Structures are given as C-alpha cells and as structure tokens.
C-alpha cells in the first residue's frame, strides 16, 4: 500500500488523499510516482507542494522528477553511507556552515546534553539527483558523551535548520496514523483474499478515517484528531 497523506503543520488533522494497492513485490518508488502523477493530473499543478518521504524513497531520479517535472519540493532523510552526507559532515563546523543549537523536546532533554545542526546548501554529490540540495546535518550529544549524527536533504530553499527539523518531525505523526489504522481501525483484518474486496476494505477504511478527521476539524474538536 502506497499512500498520500495530507498533514497540517499544526498537526491537528490528517487526510488520506490517495492510495495505490499492489503485490508485495511492487516497487514503492514506481507506485509512488504513479500515485503522484494521477493526483496532480486530477487536482492540477500545485496540488502537492511538499513531499515528506521516508528512506524507501531515497532515490535521486525520483527527487529530480518531483522537482523538475512536477514542481514538488521534497524532504527526505539520508542514509549514512551516502556520499552527500559525508560531504555535509566534512563541511559542518566551518565558518560558513556553523553548528547551531536546536530546540529539544522534554523527552530529548532527559537523554541529550545538546542537539545541534549545520546547514550545507547547493550540494551536488548525489549522483542521480540533478537538483542541488540543501543538507541539514544533525548532531546529538547524549548525557553519557556519545555522539550520533543523521541528516536531512531537501529541495526547499531559504529554510532554517530548525524549520526543516520541525517539518520532518511530522513524520512521527504520519507513523502514528498507520499505527491507529492497523491496531484500532482494522485496516489489515481482511475477510477475503479477493483483490477487489481487499481494495474496498482498504479504501473505505481510509475514507472513514478521513471523514472523521474532517468532522472533528469542523466541530472544533481538533484536539481529538
């Protein structure tokens, strides 16, 4: 299952706007591209402004297609083995790419001494990606002194490290939707192996979930969303 999920930046409602179903052997990248193509064709240019994607969509050609062909910006986590992340790590800390403190959540303050980020713009070392990218390298220092680094890449311009990290935090809200659907909404409790019935089961579940979200928003009950 490949989905398009609209998430408000205030995290107060969540709407499933598209879905594609296929066999387990289907390529998530291929299905995602078809889903975006059909959605933009139906809604028109500008219908999607930003895609928050996970590591399953870490593909330079896909990001290039999103930006050049669809005018859609992308925000994606990088894999530690990628050359573009190594380049960002080499640049971070220089005068033009200083480490900047990031806000920490109450939970993070219990385990981290500090959380910092360095922004490196116009990086082009992702071979299959023809779009210059901004990379945000995040460094987390734990209370025991251990240091971990991870990175985000984006086609967005003019955003601070804090703004990009805050945007990516919406991913945790996206994952929470899937937990709810699987554990409370019976999304995977199929009563038939017929593909048509499986499709109906999934589509009606996503529709019901989205309609409830709209109801809560309209009745000013967004805290329950």
Give a written overview of the molecule:
This protein is an alpha+beta fold and 225 residues long. 38% of the residues lie in helices and 24% in strands. It has 7 helices and 8 strands. The chain has helices at 28-43, 60-70, 83-91, 106-109, 161-168, 170-183, 195-218, and strands at residues 2-7, 14-20, 50-52, 73-77, 100-101, 112-123, 133-142, 147-154.
**Main sheet: strands, sense, barrel:** 6 strands, mixed
Strand residues, percent: 15-25%
Structural class: alpha+beta
Nearest-integer average pLDDT: 92
- Terminal CA distance reads 23 Å
The helix/strand order is: EEHEHEHEHEEEHHH
Helix content: 25-40%
Residue stretches low in confidence (pLDDT < 50, at least 5 long) are: none
The counted number of beta strands is 8
By DSSP (H or I, 4+ residues per run), the number of helices equals 7
Strand order of the largest sheet: 3-4-8-7-6-5
Note the overall shape.
globular
* Rg of Cα set: 19 Å
Q: In brief, what are we looking at here?
A:
By secondary structure, the protein is an alpha+beta fold. 38% of the residues lie in helices and 24% in strands. The longest helix has 24 residues, at 195-218.
Spell out the key features of this protein.
single chain, alpha+beta, 225 residues, 7 helices, 38% helix, two-stranded antiparallel sheet, 8 strands
What is this structure's SSE topology?
Elements: E1 2-7, E2 14-20, H1 28-43, E3 50-52, H2 60-70, E4 73-77, H3 83-91, E5 100-101, H4 106-109, E6 112-123, E7 133-142, E8 147-154, H5 161-168, H6 170-183, H7 195-218
Parallel strand pairs: 3-4
Antiparallel strand pairs: 1-2, 4-8, 5-6, 6-7, 7-8
